[in-house]
Amino acid sequence: MTTTDDHWPITLQRVAGALDFELAGAGRDRLEMRAKSRGDTSRLPALVTLAMQAALEVDRRVAASEHEPPVDRKAILARKDLSRAMTEGAHSMLLTGYATAYRLELARILWAAIADAPRRRLEELVGAGVS
């Protein structure tokens, strides 16, 4: 039996897959990893754009090592592994693996955060980041 929300786990994986990561900061020793959307997202459907904004907000929370749900230790460690690999200039295949692992964690915790009421929870996540 399917429900109207069955598409969300796959949609969130695609949203996380559309994120790109870059190093930013002043000086080599003060670099921080930052997530951003890959390409132009203006033509995406409104709910997908909202999911992209929510993914960026959840990434910000993971980066801050918050331990409030939906963020958990597994996601924090996956992000730290990716950040360390980027900072140390790891081989591109390793970076791809770390980025994929972190994107999967991001999609997982995002789904955990919105599963009971996707539209409302996405709006709450994005709204919490604005305030």
Q: Can you put this structure into words, describing what you see?
A:
- With 131 residues, the chain is mainly α.
- Helices cover 60% and strands 9% of the residues.
- The protein contains five helices and two strands.
- It has helices at 8-17, 46-63, 73-87, 92-114, 118-130; strands spanning 19-24, 32-37.
- It is globular.
Keywords:
5 helices, mainly alpha, 9% strand, 131 residues, 60% helix, two-stranded antiparallel sheet, single chain
> Mean pLDDT score, rounded?
89
Instruction: Work out the radius of gyration.
Output: 15 Å
Q: Quick one: overall form?
A: globular
Strands of the widest sheet, in order across it, are: 1-2
Q: How far apart are the termini?
A: 39 Å
Number of helices: 5
Largest sheet: 2 strands, antiparallel
Fold blueprint:
Elements: H1 8-17, E1 19-24, E2 32-37, H2 46-63, H3 73-87, H4 92-114, H5 118-130
Antiparallel strand pairs: 1-2
Helix pairs in contact: 1-2, 1-4, 2-4, 2-5, 3-4
Entry summary:
This protein has 131 residues and is mainly alpha-helical. It has helices spanning 8-17, 46-63, 73-87, 92-114, 118-130, and strands at 19-24, 32-37. The model has no long low-confidence stretch (mean pLDDT 89).
